[in-house]
Specification:
The structure holds two protein chains of two kinds. Chain A is of the alpha/beta class. Helices cover about 30% and strands about 15% of the residues of chain A. Chain A contains 14 helices and eleven strands. In chain A, strands 3-2-4-7-1-8-11-10-9 form a nine-stranded mixed beta sheet. Chain A has a two-stranded antiparallel sheet with strand order 5-6. The two termini of chain A are about 40 Å apart. Chain B folds into two domains: about 50 residues, no CATH class; about 80 residues, OB fold (Dihydrolipoamide Acetyltransferase, E2P). Chain B is mainly beta. In chain B, strands 6-5-4-7-8 form a five-stranded antiparallel beta sheet, with helices on one face. In chain B, strands 2-1-3 form a three-stranded antiparallel beta sheet, covered by helices on one side. Classes of the chains: A alpha/beta, B mainly beta. The interface between A and B is large, with 44 and 45 residues.
């Protein structure tokens, strides 16, 4: 397949993938409001309740009223009933709703679809939200819940995994990570710095689940091996909470309380033979081609390159899932991401590439990546707990190893 | 320790639809077949209704396979939170690159976790975790 040959040689084929004719999103749409609930391990509230709070806060943050909101954008797997939510929020002027597939891979696509809606005149103010009781409710990451409600694998490709006790995202990721480590000769003793630096960020972020709970490199290496080569502190933190973002046109954004955060590029990608985290029949298993394609498209749309990015928020379901993205997005070469993170200085707030500055999904919260979008907005507003000096551009990605999405945001 | 199941907890069944029914029907008979596009001479896994290379819908056929391959990667399930409760830990899931080029996952049923390595020669075998369910599995073979 040409598509994968393109990835193998890391040369994006403009002839195969011409730019879109008219990009109505780039620089013409913006994020103008953000909101979130407390992030916790047990909210003792349902997801509808959490969604209402996060959305109300985002509307307030944007200086709007609920009467201004005319669009809603959610993930297909969000458990909040959208009609019930609309009723609770008292939205009467709704004229656009949309849902995005692919779980965490859709996190940035939520913003992209909202931006497409406002850019094309389907709505003026679209709310993007994600609410989940991942810690106290159904724990997607665990293997022991399925026996209670499934008798068979839910899709054709899972039918080759579930009967063999191979049914959790972390184990699916361990499969490609092990191959990646084998191909690049990665040593386990060099790993861990990604997790340590994210935990450092969380110590300055009172909203983070791991606030007040620092982690040393020794503590990382003493943490239990969950699914070799992945340790407990390679994994994201199951969270109860919600986050919301409001998207509108650049014209409307000019007169709002906060300086607009413009969408400089937005894209989705699903290279051939991409499954939901089990893409084992691509010629290359030791990599994340969907992230490479998203990155190429984002750079082309925005006219920016890796050297122009001031801060990165890369979806981290587990540490390697984010680190390998550093390679795919051009911040380091293939097989170099563990070295890039060694000692941690490059990814700290004053480093070459401050990374997941709220603590990310590992140490702040797992709000399915929407909390990475809110952190990118804070960085570009200059209001982050770990503020990167003079941050003007941010890259945000969604879940790796499945059909994914990404954004470049700018001041 | 060979693969062991926990009595009383059903093993999740494969998802069977018209595209892959010939595969699982063959497994029931302890036969191993793979889907191939006769136009392109390319094997396809997972099975599908259309060849993604030539877009033909009537060139797809099921061909017998010797079921031989090598371990391409593997995962050892050591922690309860990752494992399926119907299977005793530790158990191993191997990703095997078949001689035909496609890769399939299954358990390795006759090897200790520390015996398994990338490049290990394996071949298809079969087991029956519960009444009415037959699965293909892998076992070690001489290279």
């Amino acid at each position: 397949m040409q598509m994968l040959e393109e990835y193998r040689t890391k040369s994006y084929r403009n002839d195969l993938r011409p730019p879109v004719d008219a990009n109505l999103v780039k620089d013409k749409t913006a994020i103008v409001g953000i909101g979130q609930t407390a992030y916790s391990r047990n909210a003792e509230r349902d997801e509808l309740d959490l969604a209402c709070e996060a959305i109300k806060k985002a509307v307030d943050d944007a200086g709007l009223t609920m009467a201004d909101i005319d669009g809603l954008e959610a993930l297909t797997l969000d458990r909040v009933s959208m009609p019930t939510l609309i009723g609770s929020l008292g939205i009467e002027n709704l004229r656009f709703t949309s849902e995005v597939s692919f779980g965490g891979g859709g996190a940035c696509a939520l913003v992209m679809h909202a931006a497409a809606a406002v850019a094309t005149g389907a709505a003026n103010y679209v709310v993007v939200y994600r609410a989940l009781n991942e810690a106290s409710g159904h724990r997607y990451g665990r293997g022991d819940g399925y026996a209670e409600y499934l008798t068979a694998a839910p899709t054709l490709h899972y039918g080759y995994y579930f009967p063999y006790g191979f049914l959790t995202p972390l184990s699916w990721a361990a499969m490609y990570t092990k191959r990646w480590m084998h191909e690049y000769g990665i040593k386990l003793e060099d790993t861990g710095w990604y997790s340590v630096v994210l935990r450092e960020y969380a110590q300055n972020n009172p909203d983070a689940i791991f606030y007040g709970k620092p982690l040393t490199i020794e503590g990382f290496h003493e943490s239990p091996m969950i699914s070799a080569p992945l340790r407990l502190y390679d994994c994201c933190v199951d969270t109860d909470g919600a986050a919301a973002v409001i998207v509108t046109t650049a014209d409307r954004a000019k007169d709002m309380p906060h300086a607009p955060v413009y969408i400089a590029a937005a894209a989705q990608s699903s290279p051939i033979e991409t499954e939901i985290q089990t893409s084992y029949n691509r010629p290359i298993v030791a990599g994340l081609p969907e992230t490479w394609y998203v990155g190429q498209e984002l750079y082309r749309q925005s006219g920016l390159g890796p050297a122009d990015i001031d801060v990165a928020q890369l979806y981290d379901p587990f540490s390697y899932g984010a680190m390998i993205q550093l390679e795919e997005l051009g911040f380091c070469g293939p097989g170099e991401c563990v070295d890039f993170c060694l000692g941690g200085d490059r990814i700290r707030v004053d480093g070459d590439l401050p990374l997941n500055t709220s603590g990310g999904l590992l140490s702040e919260a797992y709000i399915h990546g929407v909390n990475l979008v809110t952190e990118a907005v804070r960085q570009l507003r200059g209001t982050a707990y770990n503020q990167v000096a003079d941050a003007e551009t941010a890259i945000v990605t969604a879940g790796p190893g499945l059909p994914t999405s990404g954004l470049i945001l700018r001041k | 320790m060979p693969l062991e199941y926990v009595p009383g907890i059903p093993i999740l069944r494969p998802y069977v639809d018209p595209d892959n029914k010939p595969f699982w029907d063959a497994v029931d008979r302890h036969e191993f077949v793979l889907q191939r596009c006769s136009n392109c001479d390319v094997f396809l896994q997972p099975p599908r209704p259309m060849c993604p290379h030539c877009l033909s819908m009537d060139s797809l056929e099921w061909v017998p396979s010797a079921g031989r391959g090598e371990v391409y990667s593997f995962v050892v399930f050591e922690a309860d939170r990752m494992a399926y409760p119907g299977m005793k830990i530790p158990y191993v899931v191997v990703l095997v690159e078949m001689e035909e080029g496609v890769r399939l996952t299954a358990n390795i049923i006759d090897s200790e976790p520390d015996e398994v390595y990338i490049g290990m020669p394996v071949e298809v075998t079969y087991n029956s975790p519960m009444e009415g369910l037959t699965l293909y599995q892998f076992k070690k073979r001489a290279s």
